[in-house]
Amino acid sequence: MSRLFLLAWRNVVRQRRRTLFALASLIVGLAGLVVFQGYISRTMAGFRDSTIHGGLGHLQIAATEKYYAEGEFNPFAFALPDAAGLARSIASIRGVTAVFPSTGFTAIAGFGDKSVTLLVKGYPSERMRFGTAADRAIDPDTFDLGPLSSGSEIAVGDRNGIVLGDTAARILGARPGDVVTLMAILPDGGLEGRDFTVKGTYAGPGRDRIFAFTDYDSAMDFTHQTAPPLLHIFLDNAEFAGPLAGELAPKGAVRTWRDLATYYVQVNSMFRGFLDVIRAIILIITLFVLGNAMNRIVFERMAEWGTLRAMGTTRRDLLVLLLFEGLLIGVVGAVVGIGAGFGVSGLLDLFGGIPFSDGGSRFLIKVVPDPGSA
Amino acid sequence: MALIEVEEAVKEYPLEKTVAPALGGVSCSVGGGERVCLMGPSGSGKSTLLNVIGGIDKLTGGRVRIDGRDLAGLSDSALSAFRNRTMGFVFQSFNLIPVLSVFENVEYPLLLGSMGRRERKERVMELLARVGLADFAARGPEKLSGGQRQRVAIARALVTGPRLVLADEPTAALDHATGAAVMKLMVEMNEKAGATLVFATHDPAVSAYAGRIIRMMDGRIVSDGPA
Questions:
Q1: For A310, which of B83, B98, B111 is closest by C-beta distance?
Q2: CB A241 within 8 A of CB A256
Q3: pLDDT tens digits for A296-346?
Q4: What is the ipTM of this complex?
Q5: Is-contact B56 B225, C-beta < 8 A?
Q6: B109 has a chain A CB within 8 A of its CB
Q7: What is the DSSP string of A279-327?
Q8: Residue B172 pLDDT class (50, 70, 90 cuts)
Q9: How confident is the model at residue A362 (pLDDT cuts 50, 70, 90)?
């Protein structure tokens, strides 16, 4: 056996052109797969993070299951009892990085002779970020609610400020600094009205006609709520969401980000199916080229096989010899190919990543494979 | 008892819709120590006959016995071991293993047996010295001339001390003078080692080195007699 391995080693080392051709096909194919996998992995991880930070959090806890069906903008019937105590106890759990409340309500916004119906979300000011298109880095434990088009975010301590969507602001004709009047119906049937100063406007195709944001305290005060309907929970690891949801179940109606992000789940599933096909194509091309190279290794050496047989080598030994050669090329090719894949990915990351466009914005996506991606 | 006994050997190669007959019922026997030339034009069946005698090709019909053993009755491993111990092969295009040095090429048949390392080395160097290439042991085959390569092939064929050496057109790829030198070497080996030598050629000058000539045509023996 060692004689055959030695001969295989010599064949691989001394037949450089043949070996390099087989190695090159394996290395290029594997490196391509690693870079592709890394790109997809990081794309999906980015998509997951932007979903989580787009207003969900890793987990949400409400008083009842019904809240998730009908309470988001009618919070009055779903107050979470002892929300502050619950938030404190959850915050003490290992892996939890932030717990904070939110609320929402429906209102009519009026400015001059124009009006528009809004769904207003109220988050603590320090948890709201409106990054610009050029700088959408996601801060940990904050919601990234869309790039700011004009004005500014709501500063901590600012009361009765509002960030409108671009479309709503255009309909109203309002700009940062203008004061719009919000009118909302309270649970007792009374009508509440209050002036809110437009702090800024954000871009969000498909949602900037209807969604607006204010700070949590102003929202609670405006709607006369004493307890929030919902707590958002941020974790240091998205994979921890499932187990923690089980742990928190006795304390309320818990949803993980995955339960709530139906769009993400659908897109992820569709994207992965599509990517599996591309991955399979890369794999098939690699196997085809490699198979062709191995075929050449066999058929170019018919005289050699005949000579070895004439000298007394058995068919089994010839097969073992070929397997050893394949094994040597395979092991070296796999190690170098995977290493090259990580190397190329690292190099691409060094220059910012691979460009990706979501239709409105252009990003650079990192490609070093992220095993923790969704 | 003859070393080689061929009885009504038939070999046909299947083509798409028909078969190509290569041997059409050949019978002959060769005694130990003989020097036999298979002579005939291309396609006459001499290479096929060498291959079936060497057990490289299987017969479609008939029988080949070497030293009393019917080759058809041997398993692949038994036939391989038998070939390793009993036969040496010399090919027209030398067929040295390109990734092995001269020494390693000659050593290879011994590696298939159980000979110890030191004995192996001595045996290989002895054979290389006999073919005049002891100083070339470490070289690769690509650094040798055609004549030198064939001498390495002869050393390889003889290294296990076979009773039978089969050579298919051993001088066809060599110039006249080199071919003559190679044949003289093979004759010398035949005489000194006592190995039976069966070689195929279509060159009358080469056939002159044989003690017996078997002439073939269209897969059949047309004459068999002393050179």
A1: B83
A2: yes
A3: 778 888 888 999 999 999 999 999 998 998 899 999 999 999 999 999 888
A4: 0.89
A5: no
A6: yes
A7: HHHHHHHHHHHHHHHHHHHHHTTHHHHHHHHHTT--HHHHHHHHHHHHH
A8: confident
A9: low
Computed on alpha carbons and rounded to an integer, the radius of gyration of chain A in Å comes to: 30
- Of A140 and B218, the structure prediction assigns the larger pLDDT to B218
CB neighbour burial string for A51-79, b if at least 16 within 10 angstroms, e if fewer: bbbbbbbbbbbbbeeebbeebbeebbebb
Q: What is the pLDDT, as a whole number, of residue A19?
A: 87
pTM tops 0.90, yes or no:
no
Chain centroid to CA B116: how far?
A: 26
pLDDT score, position A133: 45
Contact B84 A11 (CB under 8 A): no
Residue B71 sits at the vertex; the CA angle it makes with B69 and B77, to the nearest 5 degrees, is 105
Q: Is B94 on the interface with A (CB under 8 A)?
A: no
* Neighboring chain A residues of B100 at a CB cutoff of 8 Å: 7, 10
A14 touches chain B (CB under 8 A): yes
Helix (H) or strand (E) holding B121: helix B117-130
Share above pLDDT 90 across residues of chain A, in percent, rounded to a whole number: 41
- Which pair of structure tokens corresponds to residue B119? 């004995």
CATH fold group of domain B4-226: Rossmann fold (3.40.50)
| A residues 300-319 lying closer than 8 A (beta carbon) to B | 303-304, 306-316
Give mean pLDDT, residues A68-77: 78
Say if the Cβ atoms of B95 and A304 lie within 8 Å: yes
Contact: B112, A311; criterion CB under 8 Å: yes
Contact A10 B93 (CB under 8 A): no
